[in-house]
Design goal:
With 441 residues, this protein is mostly helical. It has a domain of 66 residues. 74% of the residues lie in helices and 2% in strands. The chain contains 20 helices and four strands. The protein has a two-stranded parallel ribbon. A two-stranded antiparallel ribbon has the order 2-3. Strand 2 and strand 3 form a beta hairpin. Helix 18 packs parallel to helix 20. The radius of gyration is 22 Å and the shape is globular. Pfam families: YhfT. Keywords: Membrane, Transmembrane, Transmembrane helix.
Length: 441
């Protein structure tokens, strides 16, 4: 535990410093505003207010809900607050101290809370494992939704049919790689993404006007490149805490990794990594363009350091101390490769605007399918929240869960949908325990 506290403290201190110096932040919405701050056109108090306003909801909803349901730290919980703390602190040493203090405090708090949950008579933590079950199956359909949005129903329908056929061919082991079965949802998602890229490039190839590829980002690229030592250490530490099974970086992987770590079923890691990689590609245009426009990079880069830490490093170098060291090294090298290729990627996005436009539809589609998947998964989880020795489905728990979800919807969604269903499942687990203790269940 002390090692965990120490590593997370150092990481949060560095991300807070990166924000203080205007070198990197986690929040994509804050990044475009940062030049106003580090170039002196916006005062610290004003920038702090903006950062807090943009981040507070995500910290409380997504950050808290995902960590409570998975027992894994996440970037919304760690790095959104350090974005704020780095800007708030008038001195660099204070930014580092505040960041480290946040890392230690939040890690210790959620560790204690998880221990408390384990002591409850109705085991809600095992039941919450069901929350992740529909995630990959639902997530694999996001390309279909994106194609429907951007290229119309005919191409969307074609993609859906191809995805489902490919999925079943893989599930029935008719398609394999040298006799090795392919994870059905991984092939399904690959086909969808491939079709999306083909449609986007075909549209741009047919267009007469091409982007000029004007070189307007050189100064910002150099500014990010000059921040490489700090960014590489942060990237290495993010990969390290992913490798140490303390951290899940995305809404796609948090429950799946929690389930895999609990059951030891590491065969699914490659599917989770593939999903995280595709998610990273979807966010790539947003992060690249905001970084080139602002000179401020993402503290987790293009997010590829997540699968590098929990999948690539242990696959290549095994687990244990050497594997942890290599996770750090690979994470740092990933950031080096990303920053080195930053300008090149930016030029590519300028030449193929449909791919850049597709990223907006992809992110929206991802959110939509994940909202549905997490809602279904949360409902499945609460139905399994039974007292010791009781079998069947707990419809009292479902009634509580459905009530909480609908109250949030009725109140205009103070908690965003992506986080509301996991949070409702957690609160349901606590209330079910109270019902059990007062003999009303």
């Amino acid at each position: 535990m002390f090692i965990k506290l120490g590593v997370v403290a150092v990481l949060c201190a560095l991300t807070s410093l990166a924000s203080h110096y205007g070198r990197a932040v986690f929040h994509d919405g804050i990044r475009p505003i940062m030049p106003e701050y580090y170039q002196g056109r916006m005062k610290r108090a004003e920038m702090s207010s903006v950062a807090f306003g943009l981040s507070a909801g995500f910290i409380v909803s997504v950050g808290f809900a995902f960590t409570l349901s998975s027992n894994l730290l996440n970037p919304w919980l760690l790095f959104l607050p350090t974005d704020i703390l780095g800007v708030v602190a008038p001195y660099s040493w204070l930014a580092a101290v505040l960041g480290a203090g946040w890392g230690i405090g939040v890690t210790a708090f959620f560790g204690a809370l998880n221990t408390l949950f384990k002591l409850m008579p109705v085991n809600m933590l095992d039941a919450l494992g069901a929350l992740s079950s529909p995630v990959i199956a639902g997530f694999a359909l996001f390309p279909v939704l994106a194609i429907f949005s951007q290229f119309g129903w005919k191409k969307g329908a074609i993609t859906l049919v191809l995805e489902l056929i490919a999925r079943q061919l893989a599930a029935l082991k008719i398609i394999t790689v040298g006799g090795t079965p392919i994870y059905a949802e991984a092939l399904e998602m690959f086909i969808g993404v491939l079709m999306l890229i083909i449609f986007a490039i075909s549209k741009d190839m047919g267009a007469k006007d091409k982007a000029s590829g004007e070189n307007i980002f050189e100064a910002n690229t150099r500014r990010i490149f000059n921040s490489l030592p700090l960014l590489m250490v942060i990237g290495g530490l993010v990969a390290l805490i992913s490798n140490m099974k303390w951290f899940a970086g995305s809404e796609v992987d948090f429950q799946l990794l929690s389930q895999i770590y609990a059951t030891g079923n590491k065969g699914q890691l490659i599917s989770v990594a593939a999903a995280d990689f595709v998610r990273g590609l979807a966010f790539l245009p947003l992060i690249v363009t905001t970084s080139l426009a602002s000179g401020v990079y993402g503290v987790v880069g293009l997010t590829f350091v997540y699968p590098v830490g929990y999948w690539l490093a242990p696959t290549l170098f095994g687990e244990g101390f050497f594997g942890h060291i290599m996770a750090f090294v690979l994470g740092a090298l990933t950031i080096l490769a990303e920053v080195s290729a930053l300008r090149l990627v930016g030029v590519g996005l300028e030449k193929f605007p449909s791919i850049r436009e597709a990223s907006d539809n992809i992110r929206t589609s991802m959110n939509n399918v994940l909202e549905i998947a997490l809602l279904v998964g949360s409902a499945m989880a609460v139905l399994n929240m039974n007292p010791p020795g009781v079998q069947g489905q707990n419809w009292l728990a479902f009634a509580i869960f459905a009530s909480l979800y609908m109250i949030n919807e009725t109140l205009g969604r103070p908690i965003i949908r992506l986080a509301s269903s996991p949070l409702a499942a957690i609160i349901t687990g606590i209330l079910v325990n109270i019902f059990y203790l007062i003999h009303l269940m």
